[in-house]
Amino acid sequence: MEWLVPIVWLLLAIIFVVIEIVTLNLVSVWFAIGASSAMFVAVADYDNYGLQGIVFIVVSAIALVVIRNWSLKRLKAGSIKTNVNSLIGKTAVVTKKIEAYNVGEVKVDGMFWSAKLQSTDTIIEEGTIVEILEVIGVKLIVKKINKNE
To answer: Do 57 and 109 belong together in one domain?
Structure first.
């Protein structure tokens, strides 16, 4: 029965890897590394469950602390790339009147966006050309383009 304990650690490592593959959130890979380390300790000393548990916990913690930040930066996990900032500086057509403290709507590049005014002292009517100054969440901050500019 000397082989049973290392097999249990191997199965745990496989389960953690499968969970990681399914979630892709860099959550359980650290436990897979720890379980693999504990498996090697179990091969050498299958009766020492305390040492195996300590190796599992310590190696998992070290892997989490040392490798996680590096891997998040390297893989750019958690960041969603969008081209929304490319809208800044473009012009749009107002499709629903934009008033102070109220949200209107503009059309830019064939898509409709909620829009708010840069300042509170103007009203922009439908059909007016505006410039996109900023993107906050899902709203565009716009200003009316003066023909004098």
So the answer is: no
